[in-house]
Amino acid sequence: MNKVKLSTLPIAKGSTTEVTLAVASYKNCGVAKNGKPYIDITVMDGEAMVSGKAFSITAEELEGISVREGSVISAKVEVSDFNGRSYTFSDIRLESNDSSALVQLVPMPPHDPEKMYAEILKMIRHSADKTAEQRCGARSGLGEFVCAFLEANKADYIKSSAALKMHHDLRSGLVYHSFRMAMAAICMTKVYSALDAELLVSAAAIHDIGKLRSMTTSELGMAAYTSDGVLFEHLLLGIEMLNEFRLTYEGELEEEAYRLLKHLIASHHGKKEFDAITLPAVPEALVLSMIDDLDAKMYMYEKNIAQLEPGAISDKNRLIGTSFYRPDRG
């Protein structure tokens, strides 16, 4: 399979490079000035998802050669400088509709999802031991409860995107976001030693678990809201999932620890205007809301800066409220 990535192609009008890509979506756009049809097409190359145009072809003609969402294609790509990097695709040919070929072209986190999942369980159990030491050996059972809950939801937890568009919006984005948050939570407990490490790390691991019900994630890693996601949002759905699991859980679990866990999930958006059910009432809830916001924004910085040339600055991002700059350090 072609190893060429879209981000490495030079801006060179009139010059094309053949690249292997996965089709995320396509649609008819109408007729160009030359009277010929064209389409918008969104593709993936294993690192990024980009949108561009293909001229002198219709969506129906693509489907006529068995190209559909999730197909692996080869295409000639021209990169021009029009409001940033602009992509034009031509000579589109079907390579495969086999899911095994598709996997190699779907953007994924930089760490193996299975390994991140295993590390999350380790961090939860380590934090439970730390909290038990602080409580003279007394255990709440919260860490083991959360580990068992994750095991019951492992397949979806590892596959799911973390969002539709804003942050960690890729296959396995949820476990990646949760992994980074759990690591950040552990660091925070080293600075602020009074924090309940078991509570904070456990909540970091499952704060967005309701997204398993509020969204669906395709094999391409693209997310879409479910009806329940629109009606109730993931904070409430996550608490419902916990309550359902607890009905069949046979291990010991301290009531107050469980109550606090649900509070952290309910308040992790930090503010009512950000759809928090309630506001943080304990230090662990405050810290969770802040590291959630930090990790989401860090991902957006990382993703946007990676798309810039050294020394370049982006247009203002409306979600962050600022432009992104990639330092030129030679």
Quick structural summary:
The chain is α+β, with helices and mostly antiparallel strands and 330 residues long. 43% of the residues lie in helices and 18% in strands.
What would you note in describing this structure?
- This protein is of the alpha+beta class.
- 43% of the residues lie in helices and 18% in strands.
- The protein contains eleven helices and seven strands.
- Helix 3 runs parallel beside helix 6.
- The two termini are 32 Å apart.
Overview features:
43% helix, 7 strands, alpha+beta, 2 domains, two-stranded antiparallel ribbon, 330 residues, Hypothetical protein af1432, 11 helices, five-stranded mixed beta barrel, 18% strand
Percentage of residues assigned to helices:
40-55%
Rough outline: elongated
Rounded to an integer in angstroms, the radius of gyration calculated over CA atoms is 23 Å
The poorly predicted ranges are: none
Q: Mean of the pLDDT scores?
A: 93
Largest sheet: 5 strands, mixed, barrel
User: Which structural class matches the secondary elements?
Assistant: alpha+beta
Number of E-type strands: 7
User: What oligomeric state best describes the polypeptide chains here?
Assistant: single chain
Number of domains: 2
One letter per element, helices H and strands E, the order comes to EEEHEEHHHHHHHEEHHH
Q: Walk across the major sheet and give the strand order.
A: 1-2-3-5-4
* CATH fold-level label of the largest domain: Hypothetical protein af1432
- The termini sit apart by 32 Å
> What's the architecture of the largest domain in CATH terms?
Orthogonal Bundle
CATH level 1 name of the largest domain: Mainly Alpha
Q: Which percent range describes the beta-strand content? A: 15-25%
Total helix count? 11
